[in-house]
Each structure stands twice: as structure tokens, then as C-alpha cells.
Amino acid sequence: MAAGRGLRMMPLTTNTSKAMIQFNNAMLIGNSLKQLKKLDLQSISITVGYKGAELAEYAIKEGVHNIFNTNEKGNAWWMYNTLLKQLDAPLLVLTCDNIVEIDLEWISAQYLKHNSPTCMLIPVTPVDGIEGDFIQTKNNQIINLSRTEKTPIYGSGIQILNPKKINDCTEKADNFYDVWTQLIAQELLIASETYTKTWYSINTEAQLHTAEKLYT
């Protein structure tokens, strides 16, 4: 997911997309793409928005198979309005602003352990200064998401989901919070165990500089 405008990172995003900001001598999105290219995946897709042509050109050179223009759309729009809606298989969802060590073997094992749910969020331990949706669970079933009711875990931005299953059991929604709300009501939103690999989210210029120091 790389269509965000990145307003909180102005002026760095005045003339480029958030995904194309320089991070440790590479593009911010390149941290994940480099890892994904080494995995046995059927395809890699990205969403683009602001300065989408520039990002799409870079992504294709980096081995991305599908580009979806979601400019001025919500972050879940692609799931109901592109060919991915027909995908009846696990789809790993990442955000371009995460600095994360992708342990696909662990994520896949968690997905199978929880009986291949419609949607599974990957929680992390909260990091000071980084906002997130706090997750309340009962036997790994998510019963509430909140920005104010603090819990020991919150969403990392990493999910594994089945687009066709989601289309079959929810009404169209533009943003993930509305999708998750529908799934919670049907007891279909699951949380994995807490992710312990490297994870950091970049939403501001200060966080970018912090990440550069932490993950050089």
C-alpha cells in the first residue's frame, strides 16, 4: 500500500510520493520490495496515488507485477474495485512506510494456525511516539480496535487476508477501519501472536531520521 499523500512528512513529500522518500540510500518502499523479491510469491502488487507515475515506473523496475491507481480513494478501495477482489487466496498486505523484517514463514504459520481466517492482523508491541490502533482480543479474536483504549498490542499495518472472502461477507468500504468493523461484528477478524521481528513506522520527518539511526 503506497498511495498515501504523506502530508505529515511535508516538505519532503512536496514533489514526490511518501514511498519514494530517501531512506538509507534507497527508496522508503524499497525496504520491503527488496525482501519480497527474495520470497516465493505469485505476484507483487502496489497501490499508487500522488506522483503515481513516478512510483509506478520505479516499482516495475523493481519487479512489481501489478499497479493499481487509487488516487483520492480510501486505503481499502482496491479490495472491492480491482481484479484482486476475485482472489480466493491469502494476500499479504504491507504499508510502504513500515521498516520491517518480513518473516513470511512465521506469518504463514500463524495464518494456518488460526484456520486461514478471512482477515488476520499482525500486532506489535507499541513503540513510543508512533500511533496505532490498540487491539483487544479474546482467544485471538479481535473484539475491539481503539486509538484511546490502550492495550499491550496494536496494529502494525501488516495483514494477511482473503479478498474474495471479504467481498462475500462485507459491504463495500473505502477504508480498512470500516472493513474491520464489519468483520468484528461477524467474529471474523483475528489477531496473530505478537510480532517480534524488527518493526518501525515512519509518518513524520523526525521518525524518518530516527529510523535511519536505528536501522543503518
Distance between the termini: 24 Å
- CATH H-tier superfamily: Spore Coat Polysaccharide Biosynthesis Protein SpsA, Chain A
Uncertain segments: none
Enter the CATH topology name: Spore Coat Polysaccharide Biosynthesis Protein SpsA, Chain A
CATH architecture: Alpha-Beta Complex
**Overall domain count:** 1
How large is the radius of gyration?
17 Å
Calculate the mean pLDDT score and round it: 94
**Helical residue percent?**
25-40%
Structural class estimated from helices and strands: alpha+beta
Order of helices and strands: EEHEHEHEEHEEEEHHEEH
- Name the shape in a single word: globular
Number of helices: 7
How can the largest sheet be summarized? Answer: 4 strands, mixed
Q: Taking strands numbered 1, 2, ... along the chain, how are they ordered across the largest sheet?
A: 5-10-7-11
The number of strands is 12
User: What is the CATH class?
Assistant: Alpha Beta
| Beta content | 15-25%
Pfam families: NTP_transferase
InterPro entries: GlmU-like, NTP_transferase_dom, Nucleotide-diphossugar_trans
Keywords: Nucleotidyltransferase, Transferase
Domain Nucleotidyl transferase: 1-124
Describe, in plain words, how this protein is organized in 3D:
This protein is α+β, with helices and mostly antiparallel strands. The protein has a single domain, classed as Spore Coat Polysaccharide Biosynthesis Protein SpsA, Chain A, CATH 3.90.550.10. The chain is 27% helix and 23% strand. It has seven helices and twelve strands. The strands form five sheets. It has a four-stranded mixed β-sheet with strand order 5-10-7-11, sandwiched between helices. A two-stranded antiparallel sheet has the order 1-2. A two-stranded parallel ribbon has the order 3-4. Strand 1 and strand 2 form a beta hairpin. The chain is globular. The two termini are 24 Å apart. The model has no long low-confidence stretch (mean pLDDT 94).
